[in-house]
Design goal:
Elements (H helix, E strand, L loop, with lengths): L3 H24 L4 H20 L9 H12 L2
Helix pairs in contact: 1-2, 1-3
Length: 74
């Protein structure tokens, strides 16, 4: 049976791959709207990296809640 932490990690990794893919698409687009969206995507990816900087093994309830909030944002 998969634990809540493993399930959260899987959801985070899937969203991270989705955002990284979108970021790479936007890098090729020179329109200002694309640059703005690219900056927003990069900011979300940076925020994720900052949140999980201590690794998945040291995931507190507070960090898990923050990650769930991160997933819920569009």
């Amino acid at each position: 049976m998969i634990s809540k932490q493993e399930e959260l990690k899987d959801r985070i990794k899937a969203k991270q791959r989705e955002l990284e893919s979108r970021y790479n698409e936007l890098k090729a687009d020179s329109r200002s709207e694309a640059r703005d969206e690219r900056d927003r995507v990069r900011s979300r990816l940076d925020e994720l990296q900052e949140t999980i900087k201590d690794g998945w093994d040291n995931l507190s309830d507070r960090v898990a809640a923050k990650l769930n909030d991160w997933l819920d944002r569009k």
